[in-house]
Design brief:
Fumarase C, Chain A, domain 2, 64% helix, two-stranded antiparallel sheet, mainly alpha
């Protein structure tokens, strides 16, 4: 199956370049060499052996294809990698290689090492999204638009509030992911059954030193079948994906030809159809939603694998690798699209105004009924408001004019009162206050 045509376009291309097979091998090598350094540091390896191992292996051309073939017999990439590394070492250093570690130590630590830089990239992209949303909120704090429920026109709101909701969803997810990044992804080192067999009291000391060498956090205990670190990372990624999907769905719906309230940023060839030259498809939204859906699917795999047996998972651990690593690349790709989308989003206030008037004023029937209720009672007020709205729609006339001509209109209701009651811009509830409150929260670091 062609990943380049079917999978990779939904991912971050820069992240893909940083997470190739060779990069995972480099992270496995970083683990092994760091382990040798800390073991040499406590006198468990001869002086200078870690440096000699690094000299022999740091520029060694590991055959990733051969390592991949070796997974079929060993069940994970660490086993053929460790064999290849040992074979490339001088005889006097072979015994120093991979001491006290197990394959899960290598794979889990390498994945955490490989993905750590991606968390900083994700945070940077989420900051771009936040800044773009803040600009939309500022520019459209008072831009009235239709609020829709169950896909139908409901009551007025402002576009600033809609942007604020996008921003809050993304920022909540950013802070959740940021907590994980601040704590640091954990090193894995416990040996065969997670108790540092053969190392005694030195085991926990080595684990701490190894974490520092690799720039990872040190867990309380080895976490071979405690998959909470993976669960926490994956669900945080899924939260970002969920916020992105909500944004993309809203934008896609608002770009529809019949709605036309926003447009994706224009770019040569972007959004073109293979057969219909007039179309401007919301392609960025499609890419975001496609990536997000895949992340949701991957999350179900991770959640399903969280309970693992005894001291090593039998298939559950193995099932995590691709979903976790692909989710990071998919979220980063979706965030790149979202940042570009939000920074260049074309907002059309004139279309928002036209859609507010589309029903001939019926969207304002509720405030009209509230104005009339003290004079006519609730049922008669609602009936008059609805009848006038339908007449305004059919005749294409302003709602307040039709109301003013209604025979049952109380004589003490002025045309100015009717204009105010039928002006969507005057019936936006707490929209402005919500934008202000959201801005204050979003600007907190």
């Amino acid at each position: 199956m062609s990943d380049a045509l079917l999978s990779h376009p939904f991912m971050s291309q820069s992240a893909l370049e940083a997470c190739r097979d060779d990069d995972l091998v480099a992270s496995m090598l970083a683990f092994e060499l760091a382990l040798a350094r800390v073991q040499e540091g406590v006198g468990a390896l001869p002086a200078g052996s870690a440096g000699r191992m690094a000299a022999a292996l740091e520029h060694h051309n590991f055959d990733t294809a051969a390592i991949a073939r070796g997974i079929a017999s060993g069940g994970n990439a660490a086993i053929p990698f460790v064999k290849a590394g040992r074979a490339a070492l001088p005889d006097e250093l072979k015994a120093c290689w991979h001491q006290g570690a197990t394959s899960q130590d290598v794979v889990d630590s390498a994945l955490m090492h490989l993905l750590t830089p991606r968390l900083a990239s994700l945070d940077g992209l989420l900051e771009r999204c936040r800044n773009a949303v803040l600009a939309l909120m500022r520019d459209h704090e008072q831009t009235p638009m239709v609020g829709r429920t169950l896909m139908q026109q409901a009551l007025p709101m402002t576009f600033g509030v809609k942007a604020a909701q996008w921003g809050i969803g993304l920022e909540r997810a950013r802070r959740r992911l940021g907590d994980i990044a601040a704590e640091g992804l954990p090193v894995q080192f416990g040996g065969a059954v997670g108790v540092h067999s053969g190392w005694g009291e030195q085991g926990l000391e080595l684990m701490q030193a190894l974490a520092e060498e690799l720039g990872l956090s040190c867990p309380v205990l080895p976490w071979h079948t405690d998959r909470q670190p993976i669960h926490a990372l994956q669900t945080a990624l899924d939260a970002v994906a969920g916020a992105l999907e909500s944004l993309a769905l809203d934008v896609a719906l608002l770009t529809q030809t019949e709605v036309g309230e926003v447009s994706e940023p224009s770019a040569p060839g972007m959004g073109e159809s293979s057969s219909m030259p007039h179309k401007r498809n919301p392609v960025r939204c499609a890419l975001i939603r496609g990536a997000s859906r895949r992340v949701h699917g991957h999350t179900t795999v991770i959640i399903g694998a969280v309970a693992q047996p005894l001291e090593r998972g039998l298939g559950e651990w193995h099932a995590e690798w691709a979903p976790l690593s692909e989710s990071v690349l998919l979220v980063e790709g979706a965030l790149e699209q979202a940042a570009t989308l939000l920074e260049g989003l074309e907002v059309h206030p004139e279309r928002m105004a036209a859609n507010l008037a589309l029903t001939g004023g019926a969207i304002m029937a509720e405030p009209v009924a509230r104005l009339l209720t003290p004079h006519l009672g609730s049922d008669r007020a609602k009936a008059l408001a609805a009848e006038a709205a339908e007449t305004a729609r059919r005749q294409g006339r302003p709602y307040h004019e039709v109301l003013h001509e209604a025979p049952r209109l109380p004589p003490d209701i002025s045309v100015e009162q009717l204009k105010a009651a039928t002006d969507p811009a005057l019936y936006i509830g707490s929209s402005r206050q919500q934008v202000s409150k959201a801005r204050e929260w979003l600007e907190q670091r």
